[in-house]
Amino acid sequence: MTSVQWKPGNYYGKDREPRYIAISYTWGRWRLKGAMHPDVKGLAVHGVAWGNATSRPRSLHDERNGECVEINFEAIGFDNPNKPLSPINYAWLDVACIDQTRNSAEMAVEVGRQAKIFKGATQTFAWLTKLSRQEYLTQAERHQEQATPTRAEAKSGIDKVRRGLDINRREIEQLSLDPWFSSLWTLQEAYLCPQAMFITRQGELLSQSDIDNPAKDPMLLSYFIDYCDHMMTIVTSHEKKPQTIELNDKCLLALKSSIERSGMIGLRSTLPITLLGAARHRATSREKDRVYGIMQVFNFRLGKARPVCDPNLDPSLQELEDELGRELLTQEPIMSQMHVFENLPQVGKGWRISQDSQPTRRLHLVNHTYGEGKSVFEGMLAKAQLSTVALNGVNWGQFSGKACKFSKLVEIWDSDKGWGGGIIDLDGAEHWTAVHGPDLARKEAIAFSQLHPHAVVLLLGLAEKQASTKSSSMPVGLLLIPFSSQYGVSESLDIWRRAGVCQWWTSHEPNNGSEVGGTLQGELRDWILSAGAFG
C-alpha cells in the first residue's frame, strides 16, 4: 500500500481529481502505545514520513495469521453496468493518509477535513472488524428459525410478543455489537454516508441473502438505520399502550436499550443537531470529542480547532457545547431549535442542544431521502434573531422577533378555520400516544394552553411565498413559558423557559378570512415584536 501525496491542481501522482473509496472503521481504542506487543508489525504503508501505526491483535489484524487484511475492490462491481467508469485505484484509509504523529499540526488539519473527504468519496465502506459474512448469514438463518413461536406461545399473546421482541433485539445486535457502532468518530461518518456498504472482517461485502455475488444486493447502512427506526416505533407503541406486555418487561427494555446503543435513531432524522444526543451512546477516551467528533458536519471549527486559537486554550465539554449551540443560534436559527429534550435541561441551558436532545417526535421535518438534513429548511425564511447573553455567569439564549399568545393560535386551530390545526412537541418525557392524529394533537395543544395560559410562540421560520396562491406551508415556532420570578435572573430582560416546538398549517390563499389567514401566516396584530432571554 502506497500513500500518494496531494499536489497543487488536486493531483495525486499523475491523476487529477481521481475517484476514490473511503473506509470507515475504528481502531484508535486498540492502538498500541510504546513497546506494547513488539511482535506486532505496523500496517505497511509506503511513501509516508511517520511511523507505521500498530494495533492490538484481532483488531486490524486477521486473527488467523496476524497479517493486516488487504482489501481489493473492483469498481465495476459498484458502478452502473450501463455506464462503465474507469477503475477506482485510490482508497482513503486514515492510518495511511493522516500523519499519525500524536498532537501534530498536520494531524489536526487533516482531522478537520474528514467531512469533506467522506462526502467526496465515490463509495464508502463501513468495515466491521468482528464479523465474517458466513457468521452473519448463519446467525440470520438461526433467527428466522427461532422466530416461529411454539404451540404454547401461539396461544399466549404475551409470550408471542416477547419472543418477537427478543428476536428483533438479536437481529440488531448481530451488527450493533461490532465496535464500529460504539465509536464516536464513526458517528459523523455514518451521518455523512448513509449509503455506505458494510464489509466484513475479511473485506467481503455483507449482503442480506446468501448469493454468489453480494455486490448485487449489498447491505447498506441506510437499511439498518430504517430497521432500527421501525423497531423503535414498535417499542414506543408498546410503551404508550401497554395492553399486551408490561412497561418494565425485560424483552421490551432490552430491545429499546439495544436500539439506543446503536446510535441509529439520531441518524434517521437526517438533522445534524441530533448527533450530539446520539454521541452519548458512543465510546470515547476524551469527553470533549463528543463535540469535536461531530462539529465538521456543521462545517464548524470550535475550541482548539478554531483557525486562530490560543495554544493554551483547553475548553471544557460544557464550554464546547455552549460554543456549538451559539454557532447554531446565529448561523442556523431555525434548525438550532428543531429538537426536543428527553430530560428537562438545567436552568438557563434550554436554548442549546445537549446530549439529551432527540429528534422531534411530531413535526414534519424529516427528510426521508437522507443526505443533507438542512435542506428541510431551504425556502424557509428565519423570522427571529437568536444569540446568547451572559446572566449571572450563565450563558442564556436571547431572542428578538414576533411572538403570539399560544392560546390565540389554539383558538384558531380548534375552529373550523384552523386549516388542519397545529402540532406541538414538548420537552421532557413523552406523555401522549405515539399514534398522534389530528384529534389527539388538538387535545394536547388545548391541555397545554390551559396549563400555561401565558405561554407564547416565537415565530422561528416561515416558508417564502410561492408563485402559486394555492400552495400551503407549515410555519415553525418556539414554545416559551414565563420563568417564575423566584429565579431573579435579570431585571432588564424578560426571562422565558423553552417548553418545546410547534408547527401549524396555513395557506397563501386567504379563503379563511383575512384576519385568521394573517394570524396563521405570522402577520397582523396578534404577533407582537418581542425580545427576551430563554433557557
What gross morphology would you assign?
A: globular
Structure classification: alpha+beta
Mean pLDDT: 80
Query: Low-confidence spans: pLDDT under 50, at least 5 residues?
Result: 55-59, 61-77, 467-471
Strand order, biggest sheet? 12-14-16-17-19
Report the helical percentage: 25-40%
Question: What is the terminal-to-terminal distance?
Answer: 52 Å
Q: Roughly what fraction of the amino acids lie in strands?
A: 15-25%
Which structural traits does this protein have?
535 residues, alpha+beta, five-stranded mixed beta barrel, 16 helices, 29% helix, globular
Secondary-structure map:
Elements: E1 6-7, E2 11-12, E3 15-16, E4 20-24, E5 90-92, H1 94-97, H2 105-111, H3 114-120, E6 123-127, H4 133-146, H5 151-155, H6 157-176, H7 185-192, E7 197-199, H8 221-240, H9 250-262, H10 265-268, H11 275-279, H12 289-292, H13 317-331, E8 340-341, E9 357-358, E10 380-382, E11 384-391, E12 394-405, H14 406-413, E13 422-426, H15 438-451, E14 456-463, E15 472-473, E16 476-482, E17 495-504, E18 506-507, H16 514-520, E19 528-534
Parallel strand pairs: 4-5, 4-6, 6-7, 17-19
Antiparallel strand pairs: 1-2, 2-3, 8-9, 10-14, 11-12, 12-14, 12-19, 13-17, 14-16, 15-18, 16-17
Organism: Colletotrichum phormii
Protein name: Heterokaryon incompatibility domain-containing protein
Domain Heterokaryon incompatibility: 20-189
